[in-house]
Design a protein that fits this description.
The chain is 27% helix and 23% strand. It is an alpha+beta fold and 231 residues long.
Length: 231
């Protein structure tokens, strides 16, 4: 309805790719399956993410890096109400903040994030890249998360091409939250679960579904990023 209010983002076709580089190869996503399955059974990971080293505060202040995360991969606080999530580190150090408590996991260890646990993850190191596998509990969940990750990171990668750090390509929060609405991922605000999670779910629905889909005309998935089985 009000799509003219948004900035069009040219979409790069990645739906056919298993190995997908972003940010000129600084970050990377590789699926351990062909597009749309068959999906690996646990304990195999659905995909492997590669994150560059974190940036220092001085690098951010000088403009050398646009954030301390230094890449598009780390998500905001979120939770999964249906299934747990397991991270397996194959190189470097992973930092996961679970319900406000930081956990550092070094290769080759793993960590399980329980259902409903508010969390976010990032590279813990300022010197070494992080390579981490991500898995969910069954093939149907793996399918839904492939759809989600391909759309989210495909969109963020294309925004980054328009201008690193959002300069000219600032991601639209309504589009990002719409991807979440149709996935098993729910935004969570910091704080106690009984406050942060309901507020996050309500904010996600209003901004993602009502504003993003109904008013701005965004879609929950794009064929350039993910090919639906019926297509």
């Amino acid at each position: 309805m009000f799509a003219f209010l948004t900035t069009p983002v040219p979409r790069t076709p990645i739906a056919h790719l298993k190995s997908i580089p972003f940010e000129n190869g600084r970050s990377h996503m590789e699926f351990h399956t062909t597009p749309n399955g068959p999906y690996p059974a646990p304990p195999a990971s659905l995909m492997t993410l590669t994150l560059p080293p974190r940036a220092s505060e001085a690098e951010v202040k000088s403009g050398k890096a646009y954030s301390e995360d230094n890449n598009i991969m780390p998500p905001p606080y979120h939770y999964h109400p249906v299934y747990p999530e397991t991270f397996t580190v194959s190189r470097g150090s992973l930092k996961v903040i679970i319900d406000g408590s930081p956990h550092v996991v070094n290769a080759p260890d793993k960590i399980l994030v329980p259902r409903y646990a508010s969390h976010r993850f990032m590279n813990a190191s300022f010197e070494e890249p992080l390579v981490v596998g991500v898995r969910f509990e069954d093939s149907e969940q793996q399918k839904g998360e492939e759809r989600f990750f391909r759309n989210v990171y495909g969109y963020l990668g294309d925004c980054e091409k328009m201008g690193p750090g959002g300069k000219g390509g600032q991601p639209n929060i309504a589009q990002l939250l719409l991807f979440c609405v149709y996935s098993g991922t729910v935004l969570a605000f910091p704080g106690p679960r009984w406050i942060g999670q309901p507020l996050g779910r309500a904010f996600q629905f209003i901004v993602g579904k009502v504003i993003g889909e109904w008013l701005l005309g965004f879609k929950s998935s794009y064929p350039e990023y993910y090919k639906e089985e019926t297509e």
